[in-house]
Specification:
Number of domains: 1
Helix content: 10-25%
Distance between the termini: 13 Å
Number of helices: 2
CATH superfamily: LytTr DNA-binding domain
Shape: globular
Order of helices and strands: EEEEEHEEEEEH
Largest sheet: 5 strands, antiparallel
Structural class: alpha+beta
Radius of gyration: 14 Å
Oligomer: single chain
CATH architecture: Beta Barrel
Number of strands: 10
Low-confidence stretches: none
Strand order of the largest sheet: 5-4-3-7-6
Length: 111
């Protein structure tokens, strides 16, 4: 597996260094962006989704919704239909927009 350099996140007054391969997904809700890290607590950051997306390697991350970025290494299931969600290892459900569905299916089947 490729080891990508750690990214630096400001958490309160502390700096947190996280390897991208440890990030399972990123969600935006109510103006706050939360980064979910494998086997650790999630981290709220004061960056936009666009800023976070630019820090993550495109080889393993995909924006699947205006409020969600996923790490393709953690995808467990895809639930098509009315809900149109992606289930990650560990059971977290992430929305998949209709507009980004074909990108997801294309990338996931090649991953």
């Amino acid at each position: 597996m490729i080891r990508y350099p750690a990214i630096c996140l400001l958490q309160g007054q502390d700096y947190l260094f996280v390897f991208p391969s440890e990030i399972t997904h990123v969600l935006a809700e109510d103006g706050k962006v939360t980064i979910f890290i494998k086997d650790k607590d999630s981290v709220q950051v004061s960056k936009s989704m666009k800023e976070i997306e630019s820090l993550l390697p495109v080889e393993i991350f995909l924006r699947v919704h205006h409020s969600a970025i996923i790490n393709l290494m953690y995808v467990d299931k895809y639930h098509p239909g009315e809900n149109n969600t992606i289930e990650l290892i560990g059971g977290n459900l992430v929305p998949l927009s209709r507009r980004r569905k074909s990108d997801f299916l294309d990338r996931f089947t090649k991953f």
